[in-house]
Amino acid sequence: MTYTKTGGDPPLIEKYGDLFHESRNCRKEAVEECGLPLIDLQYLSSSDEAERQACISDMATASSEWGFFQVVNHGISDELVERMRKEQRKVFEMAFEKKRSSSSLNDSYRWGGAPNAPSVNHMSWSEAFHVPLSKISDHQDDPPFNSLRLVMKEFAKAMAELALSLSGILARKLGQSPEYFPENCDERTCFLRLNRYPPCPFSPDVCGLVPHTDSDFLTILCQDQVGGLQLMKDSKWVSVKPNSKALIVNIGDLFQAWSNGAYKSVEHRVMTNPTVERHSIAYFLCPSYEAPISTSLQPPLYKKFTFREFRQQVQEDVKKMGYKIGLPRFLL
């Protein structure tokens, strides 16, 4: 296969190409394709109490056993999703230097992985805009981004409402107050991330996004039909089958600690495709930096900490060791 780099692609081969000639990465192949637990949210408004409770129980069970589930009838229209995808594609088609140098969207553009990655295990074959919700409207004098901003604000609002609803349901299932989330998570602390994974001539040996857990409460992912998302289930990687009608929800590190381990933050990754680019949009439900992360469930598994302390520890570990340790640092 011949790889043709476009003017919008980040210089991934130029920066990391030698890594692929020095050694081939021996990743364990995903052994099967799975359909994530599917939750139909229309049952939350059912007049039948048994149907409502079954829907909530299915969501909690998936959060405990998988750390992931997918939702349909989620209230975000196909028309809004398509407008968001159209604007996303337009901005990623811009010249690399325009994306890299623009101060729009809070200087949020990023690509690749560690600057001095020692192996392909430390780099990501992707580019992204990782935007705080409160910064979406900044720099409105930059025309290429103006139409994107308008759709992003509408899309982020819809995703935020869904994230707060789902987190509240999962909290109540544990007998905890759902009010923690609207009190501590708002547009000043939450993020929207636009992802693009260019075709990769070294696929399937390369990750578009390296294995990780999410450092938030809840992530909601809107992906296209290309596929590539994989998660760790029963000590093996499984590939998630795309569902055109569904959004994917996964538990983050903070929810695992807040739920005292009832809900699981599961390692996941994105694998590249040799011929087709992939796009996705992720919403991250995060608290304020000073919000306390603790549980009233007994006996507690984790020390009480703040989101700031968690982030600082993660950044320190990545700088010193090259990878995130995360929640094990906060075990009692």
From TrEMBL:
<dbReference type="GO" id="GO:0046872">
    <property type="term" value="F:metal ion binding"/>
</dbReference>
<protein>
    <recommendedName>
        <fullName>gibberellin 2beta-dioxygenase</fullName>
        <ecNumber>1.14.11.13</ecNumber>
    </recommendedName>
</protein>
<keyword id="KW-0408">Iron</keyword>
<dbReference type="InterPro" id="IPR005123">
    <property type="entry name" value="Oxoglu/Fe-dep_dioxygenase_dom"/>
</dbReference>
<dbReference type="InterPro" id="IPR026992">
    <property type="entry name" value="DIOX_N"/>
</dbReference>
<keyword id="KW-0560">Oxidoreductase</keyword>
<dbReference type="InterPro" id="IPR044861">
    <property type="entry name" value="IPNS-like_FE2OG_OXY"/>
</dbReference>
<dbReference type="InterPro" id="IPR050231">
    <property type="entry name" value="Iron_ascorbate_oxido_reductase"/>
</dbReference>
<dbReference type="GO" id="GO:0045543">
    <property type="term" value="F:gibberellin 2-beta-dioxygenase activity"/>
</dbReference>
<feature type="domain" description="Fe2OG dioxygenase">
    <location>
        <begin position="188"/>
        <end position="287"/>
    </location>
</feature>
<dbReference type="InterPro" id="IPR027443">
    <property type="entry name" value="IPNS-like_sf"/>
</dbReference>
<dbReference type="Pfam" id="PF03171">
    <property type="entry name" value="2OG-FeII_Oxy"/>
</dbReference>
<keyword id="KW-0223">Dioxygenase</keyword>
<dbReference type="GO" id="GO:0009685">
    <property type="term" value="P:gibberellin metabolic process"/>
</dbReference>
<comment type="similarity">
    <text>Belongs to the iron/ascorbate-dependent oxidoreductase family. GA2OX subfamily.</text>
</comment>
<dbReference type="Pfam" id="PF14226">
    <property type="entry name" value="DIOX_N"/>
</dbReference>
<dbReference type="GO" id="GO:0016706">
    <property type="term" value="F:2-oxoglutarate-dependent dioxygenase activity"/>
</dbReference>
<keyword id="KW-0479">Metal-binding</keyword>
